[in-house]
């Protein structure tokens, strides 16, 4: 037995024959002669024991499991549930199922999951890597298991398959939207993530503000943790330390949630007393009474792109040269930004 | 090779020896004599080929994979992402990882996933079943693989391990909240799901309204599909056909989202012109400008309960008799209900 699962040997024992004969019969082979009596005994034994062939069975060697491992860093972040739904849509067309795992952005956990998935012999990986993603994926890359990186960069020198979000353009677009409406004292609230391409969001903010003549200390940047509490705390500090602020640009949706809850509790009227723009578009941003202007990074689109890239690799007999794609972000207007 | 993965045989070939010897050496056995030279050749070959032991390897027979399969019906439904996070918290303590799969509430897909997970020899299942869940889980139940059902009932006669939400009490509590504030013309908007225990929500509405003398045609029930579009459509119809309505009770958060977006577009002021109460508590319900009174079914709590139940089964040498638990729902007041 393998836990509760019956093995080929268990079936053979019950039918009074060898594992080889059982395998032969259950695989429907007709090359050798097998008596009807033996055939019936083996089939009955398999049925009684509820035998299901292990996907690792030697008779299946070379056959794909048709399982893709998807590693996401934060399950509570709607962008990743959207990404997964996008991947699923494509995987479904090819008859593959997904095995979704949450790494919690923890390098050690990420490594453990990858090792476990290797043991399970999954056919491919779609991964949003932690800061040690390069190191953790070394073995699967060396082996050449199909892999596509999504949303964050991998800190390695070689080329690799990548689908990225528009980290730079999204924030540039958002800050520009505010600047065009007369805002000059704009707080940037973000995450201290100096890895994976995410630092491009702050860079875009600083660059375009500079283009509009807002430089030095007039660039108001607060970076913290990737939590709602941090978003609230940074918002409170920004407004207290810089009462001249007319707009807040939240670079991450998780922090934004804490921030807008704070504003609501303080009775600050968004779109009137203070303008708000959010990078990211989880449900709450534009539902019910919420009509926050936001930039949707299009997680579903990223997922679809990544899966199509992965199946391009999987279904190709020859190895293909790594290539990269970018999912375009979309600004979605709401009523949270006023003209100054 | 198994796809890209090197097998024991590949390593043996490269090292110029047998698979048995390779297995012996890599498992660190010291019972037989092996020359240092052979040991070095095998270790070098394994390293060159990036060999990772298949979790199905015979040397690991009897050992657990330490993987739990979690089957959810709708990834876009935040209650299930909460459930998964709850399960993870517990699984992590036991060193298990989760393999999360979305069944899309499709019986055929659900069956396919279960078969695939059986082939992968996962150690246990946590499943929110489709309407054919009883049939689809028959084989794993017969084998006795640890399994806990969550949120929906399984249509079978035998006992089974179950963690349910308070489908009845949640809706009773919600309707009572409205009735106590003077509302008598309350629309119930729900899903035509006549399976799995979900029909208890409408039953609770009808029961308590009856207790308050609201009977027959004064019980205003609209059932549709589990989509935002349906929520919007049913809301529009209810208000058009029953202008006497003073409150709407949304029994499902997905429909509620469509409904409140419709109300917002029509300029209907929730908490003033119309009261709203929602069963379910996804982020958008109480974030920013949204302060909808709701009943939280506590998906995280359900996940924690289900996982603890599963590990109770897994870690027990003896089979244990199935038992059931109920996760309490919590009413969370907002400002969407006015006193009549």
Question: How would you describe what is shown here?
Answer:
The first copy, chain A, is α/β, with parallel strands linked by helices and 340 residues long. Chain A is built from 12 helices and 12 strands. A 6-stranded parallel sheet of chain A has the order 2-1-3-4-5-11, with helices on both faces. In chain A, helix 4 (78-93) links the parallel strand 1 and strand 2 (97-102). In chain A, helix 1 (8-15) packs across helix 2, helix 1 crosses helix 3 and helix 8 runs parallel beside helix 9. Chain A is elongated. The N and C termini of chain A lie far apart (73 Å). The model of chain A has no long low-confidence stretch (mean pLDDT 92). Chains A and B meet through helix 4, strand 2, helix 5, helix 7 and helix 11 of A and helix 4, strand 2, helix 5, helix 7 and helix 11 of B.
Short description:
Chain A is an alpha/beta fold. Chain A has helices at residues 8-15, 19-26, 36-48, 78-93, 107-119, 133-136, 138-143, 167-180, 200-211, 228-241, 253-265, 299-314; strands at residues 67-72, 97-102, 124-127, 147-150, 162-165, 186-191, 220-224, 247-250, 275-279, 293-296, 324-327, 330-332. In chain A, the strands form 2 sheets. Chain A has a 6-stranded parallel sheet with strand order 2-1-3-4-5-11, with helices on both faces. A 6-stranded mixed sheet of chain A has the order 7-6-8-9-10-12, sandwiched between helices.
């Amino acid at each position: 037995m393998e836990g509760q699962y019956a093995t080929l040997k268990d079936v053979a024992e019950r039918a009074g024959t060898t594992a080889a004969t059982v395998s032969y019969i259950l695989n429907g082979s007709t090359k050798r002669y097998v008596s009807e009596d033996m055939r019936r005994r083996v089939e009955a034994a398999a049925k009684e024991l509820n035998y299901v062939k292990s996907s690792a069975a030697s008779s299946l060697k070379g056959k794909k499991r048709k399982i893709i491992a998807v590693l996401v860093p934060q399950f509570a972040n709607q962008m990743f549930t959207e990404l997964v739904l996008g991947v699923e849509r494509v995987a479904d067309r090819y008859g593959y199922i997904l095995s979704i795992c949450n790494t919690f952005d923890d390098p050690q956990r990420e490594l453990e999951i990858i090792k476990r998935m290797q043991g399970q012999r999954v056919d491919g990986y779609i991964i949003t890597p932690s800061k040690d993603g390069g190191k953790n994926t070394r073995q699967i890359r060396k082996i050449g298991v199909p892999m596509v990186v999504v949303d964050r960069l991998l800190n390695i020198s070689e080329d690799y398959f990548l689908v990225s979000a528009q980290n730079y353009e999204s924030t540039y677009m958002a800050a520009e939207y505010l600047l065009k409406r007369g805002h000059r004292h704009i707080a940037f609230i973000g995450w201290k993530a100096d890895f994976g391409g995410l630092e491009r969001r702050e860079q875009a903010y600083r660059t375009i503000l500079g283009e509009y003549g807002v430089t030095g200390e007039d660039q108001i940047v607060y970076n913290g943790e990737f939590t709602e509490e941090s978003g609230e705390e940074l918002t409170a500090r920004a407004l207290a330390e810089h009462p001249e602020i007319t707009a807040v640009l939240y670079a991450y949706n998780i922090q934004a949630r804490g921030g807008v809850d704070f504003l609501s509790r303080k009775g600050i009227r968004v779109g009137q007393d203070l303008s708000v723009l959010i990078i990211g578009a989880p449900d709450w941003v534009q539902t019910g009474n919420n009509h926050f202007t936001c930039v949707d990074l299009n997680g579903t689109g990223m997922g679809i792109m990544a899966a199509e890239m992965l199946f391009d690799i999987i279904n190709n007999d020859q190895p293909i040269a790594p290539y990269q794609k970018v999912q375009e972000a979309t600004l979605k207007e709401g009523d949270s930004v006023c003209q100054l």
